[in-house]
Specification:
The complex is a heterodimer.
Chain A (H helix, E strand, L loop, with lengths): L4 E3 L2 E4 L5 E6 L6 E7 L6 E7 L2 E4 L8 E4 L6 E5 L8 E8 L7 E2 L3 E5 L1
Parallel strand pairs in A: 2-11
Antiparallel strand pairs in A: 1-3, 3-8, 4-5, 4-9, 5-6, 7-8, 9-10, 9-11
Chain B lengths: L3 E3 L2 E5 L4 E6 L6 E7 L6 E6 L5 E4 L2 E6 L4 E6 L8 E8 L8 E2 L3 E6 L1
Parallel strand pairs in B: 2-11
Antiparallel strand pairs in B: 1-3, 3-8, 4-5, 4-9, 6-7, 7-8, 9-10, 9-11
The chains are: A mainly beta, B mainly beta.
């Protein structure tokens, strides 16, 4: 069966530009998570969806970051006015229900120049 | 708030054993263990939900001491494929959902 997929795999953008990162979770998984991982660090929680709603967005660093999951499946992480400090690998994970094992996608490597 | 893992790094010869520890300053509901190889996504190993619970499969097992807010991952008779960075992910209470990942332990198994 298909795992979690993320597109694009790599994204290079200029400072100040807007980017969208897409996550397609495992079919049937109702919970979806976004994490950010910097080199040599563990994943850092950004936001968690249960179905269509954001159940916990406490990890979003500021209001430049926003995520949606309009139909309870695919999710898009949106970053406005990108900054060089936003450069990282953005990981998406899904699980059957909140709190269970999470299955990670391959990530999107974002580089802001 | 981030769980602290020890050791930071370990080098083993194939067949040797290792223990990786994860300590939290906060009370925990569950601990998840993941292994990540360079340039790849973290891969789920196991989840421990109850204090004192010990789980395992094949030669990888783990324990969770709820009172001490600690978990340990045990790797026995290590294989080359065990190389990677190990992360614990902690959940503070049921329904809290988000995982707070530890500082990571880099493991290298050599022939």
């Amino acid at each position: 069966g298909a795992g979690v997929s993320q597109t694009p795999s790599n994204k290079v953008t200029e400072k100040g530009k807007y980017v969208e990162l897409r996550c397609d979770p495992i079919s049937g998984h109702t919970a979806l998570y976004w994490y950010r991982q910097s080199l040599g660090q563990g994943p850092e929680f950004l936001i968690y969806f249960q179905g269509t709603g954001a159940a916990d967005d406490s990890g979003l660093p500021n209001d430049r970051f926003f995520a949606v999951r309009p139909e309870g499946s695919v999710s898009t992480l949106k970053i406005q006015r990108t900054e060089r400090g936003d450069s990282a690998v953005y990981l998406c994970a899904s699980s059957r229900a909140g709190g269970g094992e999470q299955y990670f996608g391959p990530g999107t490597r974002l580089t802001v120049t | 708030q981030q769980p602290v893992q020890s050791p930071q790094a370990v080098i083993l010869r194939e067949g040797e054993d290792a223990v990786i520890n994860c300590s939290s300053s906060k009370a925990l509901y569950s601990v998840h263990w993941y292994r990540q190889k360079h340039g790849e996504a973290p891969v789920f190993l196991m989840i421990l939900l109850k204090g004192g619970e010990q789980k395992g499969h094949e030669k990888i097992s783990a324990s969770f001491n709820e009172k001490k807010q600690q978990s340990s991952l045990y790797l026995t008779a290590s294989q080359l494929s065990y190389s990677g960075t190990y992360f614990c992910g902690t959940e503070r209470r049921t329904g809290f959902q988000k995982l707070v990942f530890g500082t990571g332990t880099r493991l290298l198994v050599s022939p």
